[in-house]
Specification:
Strand order of the largest sheet: 1-2-3-4-5
Order of helices and strands: EEHEHEHEH
Largest sheet: 5 strands, mixed
Number of domains: 1
CATH topology: Transcription Regulator spoIIAA
CATH architecture: 2-Layer Sandwich
Oligomer: single chain
Number of strands: 5
Structural class: alpha/beta
CATH class: Alpha Beta
Number of helices: 4
Shape: globular
Helix content: 25-40%
Distance between the termini: 27 Å
């Protein structure tokens, strides 16, 4: 599992590769917290190369969303495959997150 981040059009895009699970959720939370501490306020987490998110990974995303909103920032998600999109719909988390199909769509109008 790897996370990588790059700034695109003023948005910090975080790419998730593999899985977001109990073993690595803290790494993602820390990456976002450090970016918040450095003044970043626009975040896009891209799951185009991710295949699985467990319950602790979902919890980490909820926690990240709360922190970003508390600082006046915005968080969007993109690239969810059909299984991941169904997971967000079943857990009603699709009402909490702005979810876009791809990076280009997600970055538009940020």
């Amino acid at each position: 599992m790897a996370f990588s981040a790059a700034k695109t059009n003023g948005v910090l895009v975080v790419h998730v590769e593999g899985q977001l699970i109990v073993g690595n959720r803290q790494e993602l939370k820390q990456l976002v917290q450090e970016a918040l501490d450095h003044g970043e306020r626009k975040f896009l987490i891209d799951f185009a190369k991710a295949g699985y998110i467990d319950s602790s990974g979902l919890g980490a995303l909820v926690s990240i969303s709360k922190k970003v909103r508390e600082t006046g920032g915005e968080l969007r998600l993109s690239g969810l495959n059909d299984d991941l999109r169904s997971l967000f719909e079943l857990t009603k988390l699709d009402t909490l997150f702005a979810i876009n199909d791809g990076l280009t769509q997600a970055l538009t109008g940020f």
